[in-house]
Amino acid sequence: MPENDVLRRKFAHRFDLLDTDRDGYVTEADFAELADRLLEGAGEPTSSPKARALRDAKAHYWRTLTELVPADHSGRITKDAFAAALAGSTDPQRISHMVRPSIEADLALADRNDDGIVDSDEFITLYASIGVPAAEAQEAFRTLDRDGDGRLTLDEWLKTAMEFFTSTDPTAPGNRILGRV
Fold first, then answer.
1. Does 38 fall in a domain?
2. Mean pLDDT, consecutive 10-residue segments, the chain of 181 residues?
C-alpha cells in the first residue's frame, strides 16, 4: 500500500471520530462537542479545572489544525481536505504542538485518582464516550501500553500518538490508537 494511502486512511478514520454531528465536516463546534462528550463520559463536573483544561486543549487542537488545513468560508473542513493536509504534513514538531495539549488533557481526565497513570478501565471509559467500542478500546490500550505493565503514562500515549500521525508503516502499533482503522 502506498505510504500516503496509509496516512490518508488513518486520518479519514480520525476525521470520523472528530465529526461529532456526522455532517461530513469538522468544525470548531465538533471539538467543543468532543470535549463535552469526554467530560460527560468521565463524569467530570463541567466547571472543574480538568474540564477547563480539556476545553482549552480541544480549542488549541482546532486552532492549530486550521493552520494545517484551512477551513472554508463557513469554518468547516472536509474529510478529503483533512486527510490530504495531514498526510502531507508529518513534521513531528508541528504535529506534537497540535496534539500534545489534547493528549495531556485526555490523560488527566481519564486519570480518576490523579496519580498520573491511566489504567485499562479508565481508558475504556474515556474511549466509550467518543464511540469507540470496549473491545477496540482495550486493543488500543494494549497498543499504547508499550511496556505492558497495565498502566498508561503520558510518554507512552504521546509516543503512540506521534506514531499514528507520522508513520507510514501499515503495521505500526500507533495505527491502533483510535481503535480499528
1. yes
2. 78 92 97 96 95 98 94 95 88 92 96 93 90 88 91 93 90 79 61
